[in-house]
Amino acid sequence: MLALFLDNVIEDRREARIFNELLSHTADEMKSNLSIVDEWLPYHRSVIDEIDRYIASDELRRSLLTTDGIDYGLFMKRGLIQDFYSNSSWQLAQQSEITSRIEFDVTYSISKAYLSQQNVNLTLKRFSDFVFERQTHDPDQLVNSLRILRNLLQELSGQQSVMQHNYREALNAVDRMNEGRN
Question: How many domains does the chain have?
Fold first, then answer.
């Protein structure tokens, strides 16, 4: 009987350690993702303003034209994004039965944050795909291409704002849960 009790205590401690590690790694991953969006969102908003300037100015639009096509790098000096959002820790946590020990509202907040990240990633892909389409580099379609790029960046910026909010909410929910456990 004592051996069974000790086995249960050891198993509970092992599960608690794994739970704490998964939650800690997921919180660290969310903090990393939040720092990425905190860095790139203001940049994307500034690119929207630059695109508006190019749309409004024949001279600026002409400066985009090169013998190789259109140089969108003139107003996107840092590219679209150089960092990638991660979801590995949360995926691993979801595959574990340990996540059933996370309070519902915390799980909901974390899931909502990662769902908003998926939306951002889809828009990043749409933007990237559009930039590499042949008609995007047709000088006769430059104004239309600029408008579409601006619209995609506006959509991206809006989604990043939602993601930023959702990550902050999820991190606050994890903190509240941890405070309640201590």
Answer: 1
